[in-house]
Specification:
With 541 residues, the protein is α/β, with parallel strands linked by helices. It is 46% helix and 15% strand. The protein is built from 20 helices and 16 strands. Strands 1-8-7-3-4-5-6-2 form an eight-stranded mixed beta sheet. Strands 9-10-11-12-13-14-15-16 form an eight-stranded parallel β-barrel, surrounded by six helices. Helix 13 packs across helix 14. The radius of gyration is 26 Å and the shape is globular. It binds phosphoenolpyruvate and magnesium ion. The site of magnesium ion has 4 residues, from helix 17.
Amino acid sequence: MITLTGKKVSEGIVIGKLVFYKRDERENRRIYVKDVEKEVQRFQKARQKAMAELKELYVTSIREVGEANAAIFEMQQKILEEEEFVDRVVNIVVEEKLNAEYAVQTTAEEILKGVEGEGKEYLQGHGADVKDVALRLLQILSRNWKDRLLTDEPFVLATSELYPSEAVQLDKSKVLGFVTRYGTINSHTAVIARTKNIPSVIGLGEALKNDYDGKTIIIDGFEGKIYIEPDQTTLAKMKQRKSENRTQIQNLERLKGKENITQSGQKIDICANIGSREDIESVLRSDAGGVGLFRSEFLYMENGGKLPTEEQQFQAYKLAAESMGRKKVVIRTADLGGEKIADCLDLGGEKNPAMGVRGIRVSLDKEEIFMTQLRAILRASLYGNLSVMFPMISSVAEVQRAKLLLGRAGKELKAEKIPYNEKIEVGVMIETPAAVMISGELTREVDFVSIGTNDLTQFTLGMDRGNERLEPYYNPHHPALLKMIRIVANNVHLENKRISICGDLAADPEMTEFFLQIGIDELSVAPGEVLSLRKRIREIQ
Ligand code: PEP
Ligand code: MG
């Protein structure tokens, strides 16, 4: 048995088979595919994407290196359009029933072998381009990583680092838990693991070896430990722990329907944070008072290369609104950028993405995309108690602009005779020190305010929430942060408005008394944390 210790991210015990997801190694294995039509489509989609990328590269390269040098990207586009190339790949997939990666790799090798001998003029001297094109295709194909975990059995996922855009796509019915070599407990990947309640341990380092692929693993998400090929004693102990946990959860269930009230009668609301339609069910089961934060950017991150349409978003928000009945649902407009990357939206390279074009800055920069989202939210507002909230605010002007666009979306709908709730409430997130300092002015612009302690911590301390080396210094209980929260709460209450906390700190039992003391109105936490927080509140004097 091998025991490794990492960082705990999401609690729970799971026992299963370890499957390594090797993102960086191309999957050129021969894999038999059942649905060849789907596989051909997968190849064609990757080909279209590669052509679009090359077209863009051609345009930017003309500017940077001149037309003559940029011509290689035109040449590479031509290779992708060549009938011979396309037919060969498709033939391998259809005739031999094999995966697209293998077909692309084999075709490129065959073409390269034949270039000289068969006098293919269009390819003379372009061996390197064929290789380059094949590599691009393979990379695109591997981006759709879900296809690569070709197993029907539930498993424990292992990888070097799991990105938020991947974590958000984890199918809970298949992925029992995950373990990684790197990553931080404050990252969005960690947030997603907690929201989806997927037991996980991260930061196991190089000790997490590829050789463990296929072996039995136990994740102890309570202790941040994993056991590879556990012995009988450990197995029995972990099974026991698992059943104790089940009992604890069952005991918490007794708190359903009860108030979030302290012994001395002070009340506070508890809502839940979600990221996708699948999480709605967990919110309903958790008995939360509503959805305090719908991280709508996940709809963009899980939609592959295409932007989610107005209709698609409308359906997701409507489902949330309808499922929650009279309980509120706060849709946060897309907080993209930073480590939240969506394939469907090219934000360009940035030296410092955490402080770059993100949150409301993306929305105001890409108004058309923002308008689509605002229209979808307004349309869905008719089906329940929906409100809208803007992320990563740093000035009053941003809020005014966002509100103006919301008003414009409303006018458009009116002109189209599409009904919506004209009194929809609007809120802002306080995630930057600037927003803290002008929280009074910001509050006057809106109906409610929510503090995003995850980002507020990183910007207050000036420490990247994703930097492992800073973890020993990354202190969400830092007095500066607590002072900021107090300042915001006071400023919001002076305006007679409601203040909530929706960052991870909201669920921290050591903070509950402080939040009650300063009169926070609502705490919004992962669905799985609602009842334990209720228990904590009910124990306080
Ligand atoms: C936060 O920053 O606290 C927050 C709730 O937003 P996110 O974690 O999605 O950045
Ligand atoms: Mg944030």
